Protein: Shikimate dehydrogenase (NADP(+))
Amino acid sequence: MEFKLGLIGYPVQHSLSPFIHQKFMENTSIQGSYQLFETEPHQLEKRLEELKRADISGFNVTVPHKQAIMSYLDEVDSDAYRIGAVNTVVNDKGRLKGYNTDGIGYVRSLAEAYPNVFQQEKKALILGAGGAARGIYRALVKQGIQGISIANRTKSKAEGLLDLQDLHTETEILSFSEAEAALDNFDLIVQTTSVGMSPNHDEQVISLNKVKPHTVVSDIVYKPLNTKLLREAANLGAKTHHGHTMLLYQAQYAFEIWTGAHPQMESLVEQLEQRLRGNGYVNR
Structure:
């Protein structure tokens, strides 16, 4: 079987998804293609009908369509429904089902880098309350983390994530300044905003002055690879976790959903890092 895969969003010209999924196909000896379908918001419904007629096997969804696409799908996975966003769609003979692979991809990438990170009671801090934060929060809840704090510039927006918690999870809502003051309480800090992304690579959402040594500091920004937040974390003796690994592992889960194949990741993290460095996504 040949798999016809792709990505819809706007803009998508600089997406790394074709590179990643081509590597997955080579890794698993699967025949297929991965195309970019640039789709402005007013074109979404028409694009979905075109993809159905083209008999595409599945496709990824990126901004600005992750929420809007849900009303056009025939079925939405229960976790994606609770998160309120879809980034992966399966086309089963014209019937479209949506999934969200961000949170699972994040957890996989973190566990690969730090295998013991979920093996004892931990307290986590999530910075930001957008779509990525929702997926990561839900995945950490399902992973059994018992204490999670969510910090955001607007507390009311962070409170919107509380519908994703389960009974075993205690969640508090903080301002960024409150989180900064309590930083030594946390074993895992996850930065989910766009702060620090190129070209604004000299920005960071909070100071890490009170971070504990050996705390894992994670930033989902991957342009640049080594954000200002991660550089400060390393200087203070914290462990660092880079955003391009989440990008790769959420794509791995999407590929598994589409094909049933499980790409091996040993060399792919390094290959993606080299690709990003070649594109100039490094610190100046």
